[in-house]
Amino acid sequence: xxxxxxxxxxxxxxxxxxxxxxxxxxxxxxxxxxxxxxxxxxxxxxxxxxxxxxxxxxxxxxxxxxxxxxxxxxxxxxxxxxxxxxxxxxxxxxxxxxxxxxxxxxxxxxxxxxxxxxxxxxxxxxxxxxxxxxxxxxxxxxxxxxxxxxxxxxxxxxxxxxxxxxxxxxxxxxxxxxxxxxxxxxxxxxxxxxxxxxxxxxxxxxxxxxxxxxxxxxxxxxxxxxxxxxxxxxxxxxxxxxxxxxxxxxxxxxxxxxxxxxxxxxxxxxxxxxxxxxxxxxxxxxxxxxxxxxxxxxxxx
Length: 301
Fold this sequence. Notes:
The chain is mainly alpha-helical. It has 2 domains: about 5-210, Alpha-lytic protease prodomain-like (Up-down Bundle); about 215-300, Cation efflux protein, cytoplasmic domain (Alpha-Beta Plaits), CATH 3.30.70. About 70% of the residues lie in helices and about 10% in strands. The protein has 9 helices and 3 strands. A hairpin with a 2-residue loop joins strand 1 and strand 2. The longest helix is centred in the first third of the chain and has 30 residues, at about 5-30. It starts with a helix and ends in a 6-residue tail after the last strand. The mean pLDDT is about 85. It is a multi-pass membrane protein. It is found in: Membrane. Pfam families: Cation_efflux. InterPro entries: Cation_efflux, Cation_efflux_TM, Cation_efflux_TMD_sf, CDF_Transporter.
């Protein structure tokens, strides 16, 4: 099975499990009266919808370019990641506002037996999916699977926090701390959203870097180091390089300025220099678009 087929198979499995998990979360959250569980269910609903987009993107990026999208469909992937992260950010913000409002209103006491049962089952499912996808992605190395595994980890952390909080609330019932029980659910929800919102912020920032074609600094340093050596070794006048990363594709354009009396001798000689540059840069990702052009006129760089 190819990496693309493995990626799509795992995403399909994740969609099915996430959909079932989301439905049960919202239902049990309403039955137990827990805003935290409802938030967990809504988080999974959005994750399921985004997974469907991710599966579509995974299929598109494997297609060859056409006359309309001549560079291929690599730009779809960071767009999906940016959308995913943005939706999760707004969900976290909305949940935090509700949590603060519930706390100020005096809180509410959920049905703890339902809540504990859900939290226990959720921990088993979410941690299981996280480790399963993480292992599958060791070979595939897919950004989409990496993001989905992170989403399962976030869900697992939510479930773990819910389990601890509801167990604590159950333990203090009938004690002198019992009046604090109604505040457990909104407090946990507020703390979870404050923590979880940092993850989609990082995702959106990385995706925007790729959408805006911001040069990845590590690859830029590699290309510059290679070209400085090539220019010195072959006696070229100067060079200009342009580097961008879009999804899992790397685009590298290099323009070499030769002297006016430079004698290429043959096209094969220039191709040998191109091969030397390509070998020195190395394979940076699953897809690499490398262009090396030679000119004696600086207007063309």
